[in-house]
Design goal:
The complex is a heterodimer of chains A (115) and B (115). Chain A is mostly beta strands. Helix content of chain A is 0%, strand content 46%. The N and C termini of chain A lie far apart (37 Å). The relative contact order of chain A is 0.33. The chains are: A mainly beta (115), B mainly beta (115). At the A-B interface, β5 and β9 of A face β5, β9 and β10 of B.
Chain lengths: 115, 115
């Protein structure tokens, strides 16, 4: 079946512009995560959605970052007034649930470059 | 402050020999550990995991060892194959803030298996 998909695969934007990144999780997966990987760094947790519960936003680096998950499926990560330090690969993952052993399946990521 | 550390950014191994990738962690609340493998332009894919109640888990050519007292885990690949060449991420999970069991990742180790 289809895996996690993300769009666009690459995004180049100018400093100060807003960007929207999209994630389509695996059908039936109730948990959805956003991570980002800056150059030379590991993956950094951003936000987590589980079913209809309030999202865990504890990893969002600033109030310029927000995310939504509509209908328990597709999610969009929005970065307002982008800065150069926002340049990174943004990865989305989904899992069947939030239990320890629920494997997280990752999408290919969106490479964001802020000029 | 990095809670999961992979101190070797790269490792080269001859085909057929053993590859040993190391990972250290600092947070004693972590109770589940995973290794992910990542090829260029793809998302990370799950490889193997271990619960803190075990000290070893084996799956084919891959074995993960956990030393809780040293807060250290390692991934052994034997025999190594050229197709194993990828970036390997160590990740840890444990209940922290909120209810999310987000993964905390190390910065990765680039493994190159030479034919």
């Amino acid at each position: 079946g289809a895996g996690v998909s993300q769009s666009p695969s690459n995004k180049v934007t100018e400093k100060g512009k807003d960007v929207e990144l999209r994630c389509d999780p695996i059908s039936g997966h109730t948990a959805l995560y956003w991570y980002r990987q800056s150059l030379g760094q590991g993956l950094e947790f951003l936000i987590y959605f589980q079913g209809n519960s309030a999202p865990d936003k504890s990893g969002l680096p600033s109030d310029r970052f927000s995310a939504e998950r509509t209908g328990g499926s597709v999610s969009t990560l929005t970065i307002q007034r982008t800065q150069q330090e926002d340049s990174a690969v943004y990865l989305c993952a989904s899992s069947l649930g939030s239990a320890t052993t629920n494997e997280q399946f990752f999408g290919p990521g969106t490479r964001l470059t802020v000029l | 402050d990095q809670q999961v550390k992979q101190n070797s950014p790269s490792l080269s191994v001859q085909e057929g020999r053993i590859s040993i990738l190391n990972c250290d962690y600092t947070n004693s609340m972590f109770d589940y550990f995973l290794w992910y493998k990542k090829y260029p332009a793809e998302g990370p894919t799950f490889l193997i995991s271990i619960s803190s109640i075990k000290d070893k888990n084996e799956d084919g050519r891959f074995t993960v060892f956990l030393n809780k007292s040293a807060k250290h885990l390692s991934l052994h690949i034997v025999p190594s194959q050229p197709g194993d060449s990828a970036v390997y991420f160590c990740a840890a999970s444990g209940y922290s803030s909120g209810s999310a069991r987000q993964l905390t990742f190390g910065s990765g180790t680039q493994l190159t298996v030479l034919p």
